[in-house]
Write a structure and sequence with these properties.
Radius of gyration: 20 Å
Structural class: alpha+beta
Largest sheet: 7 strands, antiparallel
Strand content: 15-25%
Number of strands: 7
Distance between the termini: 10 Å
Order of helices and strands: EEHHEHEEEEH
Shape: elongated
Length: 159
């Protein structure tokens, strides 16, 4: 079967492009997992070697260096068109558990999958939504995850 993949588009508009955190839970997990340990390491370096110059760049570097991973979680969407879209939907549903996702909610025409992660690292923006309308299967979720799903569809359904 032949399918056509639409372009992967970011759903952020306006000022949302510049502020990567979409929820308080996402900001909290970023601060607790990235920034707080780096501040502790910076304070430890300052106290051990009395080097006040090392701590500030270490914290600033950690904050700025970890932001690209947060930007990869921005919401995006792509579509699958063509006569093979039902087979593409089945291929996506079979591939999502291999990426660590599990189905959590099934409604009419909508599948929601969430990653199995500790509560601290879990937020709603990590969900992948699969929805089917008359002509297109729409896949929406975080940008990095959708890149992997598009790559998988290109391998399963070569042009």
């Amino acid at each position: 079967m032949k399918i056509e993949l639409t372009r992967l588009r970011l759903l952020d508009t306006g000022l949302r492009r510049f502020w990567p955190f979409r929820s308080a839970a996402q900001l909290q997990s970023y601060l607790l997992c990235v920034l707080v340990p780096r501040v502790g390491i910076g304070a430890l370096v300052q106290s051990a070697w009395h080097a006040h110059v090392i701590g500030i760049p270490a914290v600033a570097g950690a904050f700025g260096g970890a932001l690209p991973s947060v930007y990869l979680t921005r919401l995006a969407r792509f579509g699958v068109k063509g006569p093979g879209r039902a087979q593409a939907l089945a291929a996506l549903e079979a591939h999502l558990p291999l990426l660590g996702f599990q189905p959590s909610d099934t409604e009419t025409g909508l599948w929601v999958c969430r990653r199995r992660l500790p509560q601290l690292l879990r937020w709603n923006q990590q969900a992948v939504h699969l929805a089917m309308d008359a002509n297109t299967v729409w896949v929406s979720g975080q940008y990095a995850g959708l890149l992997s799903l598009r790559r998988h569809l290109r391998q399963v359904f070569p042009a």
